[in-house]
Write a structure and sequence with these properties.
The complex is a heterodimer. Chain A has 3 helices and no strands. Chain A is mainly α. Chain A is elongated, with a radius of gyration of 30 Å. In chain A, 7% of the residues are buried. The mean pLDDT of chain A is 84. The radius of gyration of chain B is 19 Å and the shape is elongated. Classes of the chains: A mainly alpha, B mainly alpha.
Chain lengths: 116, 77
């Protein structure tokens, strides 16, 4: 009987911990819609660097150039990065014929000078 | 508001949501693995997969619902 009570108690504790973890995740909006998830990530991005800063100063690790890098800033936009990449590639392609001409002329001039 | 800007914002939201759901699924998988399943690795993979699946479903719903208009009939007496 004692074993049964102890096992039941242990199961209740474990169930409670697991349920609390799921509830916290739900409450923070981690399991909701896409908008909620994006907002949760934004909130975390704003909260994390000051938290890292606080912990490093609490532990006595000063942020110096030689020792620790500065607190990282997370701000990544996939669409901005993609658009920038497309612009860069298209700009490079648009000037490619002109540049190829210039390099060919320079190379030809170099070879002519060598041959002289 | 330009439609390509709106599409870009949807993609950003999708990526952010995927990261959040993957992290949450991974974390909950670790919790369940430690508490119930004797530190096996499959709950972690299961949780991560569930998170990714939820994110995919949210993204799909977000991309497919641009022009849905929800109306309702109002009786004029």
């Amino acid at each position: 009987l004692n074993c049964f009570i102890f096992d039941s108690f242990r199961f209740l504790i474990k169930g409670g911990l697991a349920g609390a973890a799921v509830y916290v995740a739900y409450d923070q909006g981690l399991l909701g819609s896409g908008t909620q998830g994006a907002e949760a990530l934004k909130k975390a991005q704003e909260t994390l660097p000051p938290a890292i800063q606080e912990w490093t100063s609490y532990l006595g690790w000063e942020v110096r150039a030689a020792q620790l890098p500065p607190t990282p800033k997370f701000d990544f936009s996939l669409s901005d990065a993609w658009n920038k990449g497309v612009h860069t590639v298209m700009s490079a392609l648009s000037v490619a014929p002109t540049r190829a001409c210039e390099y060919t002329m320079e190379g030809w001039k170099y070879v002519k000078d060598l041959v002289k | 508001m330009a439609s390509e800007g709106d599409l870009g914002r949807k993609w950003d939201r999708c990526v952010a949501d995927s990261a959040v759901k993957l992290g949450a699924g991974f974390g909950l998988g670790i919790v369940f693995s430690v508490i119930f399943f004797k530190r096996k690795s499959w709950p972690i993979a299961f949780g991560s997969g569930m998170g990714l699946g939820m994110a995919y479903s949210n993204c799909q719903h977000d991309f497919q619902s641009p022009y849905l208009l929800h109306g309702k009939f109002v009786k004029v007496s």
